Input
Amino acid sequence: MLHKVPFAIFQGIEQTFSSRDRIQTESRPVMTKTLSRLIEKTAFTRRAGLALAASAAVAAFVSIGPAPALAQDKTSVKVGIMSGEDEDVWRVVVAEAGKKGLSVETVVFNDYTQPNEALERGEIDANAFQHLPYLENQIKQHGYKIVPAGYTGVWPIGVYSRKTSKIADLPEGAVVGVPNDPSNEGRALRVLQNEGLIKLKEGTGILATITDIEENPKKLEIKELDAGIVGRSIDDLDAAVVNTDWALKSGLTPDNRIAQEPVDGNPYRNFIAVKEDQKDAPWVKTLVSSYQNEAVKAEFDRVYKGTGISAY
Output
C-alpha cells in the first residue's frame, strides 16, 4: 500500500541536495587553488634544492679537479740570472729545457738585491745566483717565501791584488776591500782570518762584520764596498776579497788571486731558487735537471776556467 509523502518533504530534500551540490561546486575552485599553490611551492622548493645540489657538485669538482696541478705544471717560465758569464751557461740550460718541453726565458739582473725581489713579486718564476747564507739573511730581512730547488755551482771567494803576489807580503796598514752585504762580508772576513791577517771574536757566525774583528795585527784598513764595485776598485786598493763572478767581470784572473777560501765543505754553493709553494711542481724538477747535466757542465767549465766548480 502506497503512502503519500507530503510535497513539503520532497521540497526539503531537494533543497538539501541542492545546497550540498552548491557547496561542493563552490568549494572545488577554492580547494583547487590551495592544492595548486601547494604543488607549485613544492616544485619550487625541489627545483631550488636541485640547483643548490648542482652548484655544490660543480664547486666540489672544481676544488678537487685537476686545475691546481695544471697551474703548477708550467710549460713556460722566467728565470732570473746575473749578467756576465752565467748568461753563456744558461743558453745551454735553455736548450736542454727545450728538449724536455719546458720553455725558459732568462731575465738578466745587474745586482744581488733584485732577483729575490722579482721572484717574491711573481715577476719571475725562479732565480739562480745565490748561496744559502745570503738567502737566509734576505729572508730574515724581508720575509721572503723562497727556498732552494737544486744546486748549480760554487765559486770560492778569493783575495785578489795587482800590487803583491803573496798575501803574506801585504804591508802594515794595507787597504783591503770586502763586499758590504752581510753574508759575503762575513765570508770575506773568514778568508782573511784563515790567512792569519785578522782574528774574529769567539762565537762569531757567518754573518760577521768588521765590528767582530778582535785582532788586526797589521792594522789593515778594511773598506766595505758594494759586491759589484769591490773588484773594479782593485787599482785603488792593496787587495780585495771578491766573489768569482765579479772578479771575472772586473777583469781579474787567477793570476791576480793571492788567496782563496777552501772548497771542501764549502757552505756557499749556489742554487736555483723558487717560491716555497712551487718547490714540488713538475716544472721545477725539469728546470733543475736541465741544469744538472754534462752539456751544461762542459759549458760551465769552459766559461769559468776553473774559477767555479759544479756543485751537484
Q: What stands out?
A: The longest helix spans residues 7-64.
